[in-house]
Specification:
Structural class: alpha/beta
Largest sheet: 7 strands, mixed
Shape: elongated
Number of domains: 3
Number of strands: 11
Helix content: 40-55%
Radius of gyration: 23 Å
Distance between the termini: 45 Å
Order of helices and strands: HHHEEHEHHEHEEEHEHEHEEH
CATH topology of the largest domain: D-Maltodextrin-Binding Protein, domain 2
C-alpha cells in the first residue's frame, strides 16, 4: 500500500537515518531501503541524499515530505471515521511518561482503558521530563505525560492534574519530631535530589533557590525510587510527590516534614506534537483520562 511506503519515507526524513526509522517501524534496514527505492522509481526522482552518518532530503524529497504528511493525516482521519462507523477503537499508542506519572499514576489508568478497548496496542516508555519532551518532539512518542510545563512552540500542552509535593525525611531525623517546620530549620541540611532533566529536580531546585535555602551537601539519584530509598536509609531529606511516598509514610519508614504556611503543588501535563495527526485510539485515550480526572 502506498500509505505504508509514504509512512516509511516520512519516518526516514524525520529521523535522518535509515536504521533509526527501521527501529521505529519494526522494519529491517534493507526493508526501509526497498520502500525508498520503489518510491524514487515510481516518481522518477531522487528523494534523499545518503551518507554514512545521516540522510538529507533533496529538493524533490522536501516537496514530497510536505504532501506525504498531509496524505497520511487525511488517511488517518478517514480510518478514524470508518472505525467510528463500526463503533470499534483499534490501533496502537506509544505513550511516554515521566517517572512519577509512569510508575504511580498511569498503570491503573492504562488497565481501565485496556479493559474497555482490548483491540488497542499500548506501549509505554518511562523517562525524565526532558526525555519525554524530546520523544514527543521527534515523533517517537504519540503522547507524553510530564511534570511541570513544556514551553516548546511545536507542542500542544494540556493540563492534566495537580500533584502535591512534600518534603520527607528519615524516620529518625531531628526534624521528624517537629509538628510544624519553619523554613529556617531547612538551612544547612543534606538533600537527596533527582538528576538534571527531571521535573522533580527542577521543582526542588526552584523551591530551594526561591526560599534561599543553603544546602550543606547533596546526593543525586536518577529515579524517585532511589531517592526514596536513600531517604529511608538516613542519607538526607528530599522533596517528592506524595504519590511516590504514600506507602512509606503509612508504614513509618519515612516522615513528612510539614512546612508552615506552605502548600506545594506542581502541574502534570499531557503533551502532543502540533504537526502529528492523532489516531482515534489516542484521542479516545486522552478523552477518557480528562473525564476520569474530573470525576475524582
Amino acid at each position: 500500500m502506498i500509505v505504508d511506503t509514504l509512512r516509511v519515507f516520512v519516518t526516514v526524513a524525520e529521523q535522518s537515518h535509515f536504521s533509526k526509522a527501521g527501529e521505529l517501524l519494526n522494519l529491517s534496514q534493507p526493508g526501509v531501503s526497498l520502500h525508498i527505492r520503489n518510491l524514487e522509481n515510481e516518481l522518477g526522482a531522487k528523494l534523499l541524499h545518503r551518507s554514512s552518518k545521516q540522510v538529507r532530503l533533496t529538493e524533490a524529497g522536501t516537496i514530497l515530505y510536505k504532501h506525504a504528511k498531509q496524505i497520511l493525516a487525511h488517511f488517518e482521519e478517514a480510518n478514524q471515521e470508518i472505525q467510528m462507523l463500526q463503533d470499534e477503537v483499534t490501533g496502537s499508542i506509544h505513550i511516554g511518561a515521566s517517572f512519577t506519572i509512569g510508575e504511580y499514576i498511569l498503570p491503573s489508568r492504562l488497565a481501565e482503558f485496556a479493559n474497555q478497548y482490548p483491540q488497542v496496542k499500548l506501549q509505554v516508555t518511562i523517562g525524565n521530563t526532558e526525555e519525554i519532551i524530546g520523544g514527543v518532539r521527534s515523533n517517537e512518542l504519540d503522547i507524553g505525560f510530564i511534570e511541570g510545563q513544556a514551553h516548546e512552540n511545536d507542542l500542544i500542552v494540556t493540563p492534566y492534574m495537580k500533584d502535591e509535593m512534600i518534603i520527607v525525611s528519615p524516620a529518625n531525623h531531628p526534624l521528624s519530631k517537629i509538628v510544624s517546620v519553619e523554613q529556617s530549620m531547612l538551612q544547612n541540611q543534606v538533600w537527596v535530589l533527582r538528576e538534571l532533566g527531571s521535573g522533580t529536580r527542577a521543582f526542588s531546585e526552584h523551591y530551594i533557590q526561591e526560599e534561599e535555602i543553603s544546602v550543606k551537601r547533596s546526593y543525586v539519584f536518577n529515579s524517585s525510587q532511589g531517592v526514596k530509598e536513600a531517604v529511608a536509609s538516613g542519607l538526607g531529606i528530599a522533596m517528592l510527590s506524595r504519590w511516590i511516598v504514600r506507602k512509606e509514610l503509612a508504614s513509618g519508614e519515612i516522615c513528612e516534614l510539614p512546612i508552615r504556611h506552605h502548600h506545594l503543588e506542581r502541574q502534570f501535563s499531557i503533551i502532543r506534537h502540533k504537526e502529528s495527526s492523532s489516531s482515534m485510539a489516542t484521542n479516545v485515550f486522552i478523552q477518557k483520562l480528562l473525564v476520569s480526572r474530573k470525576d475524582k
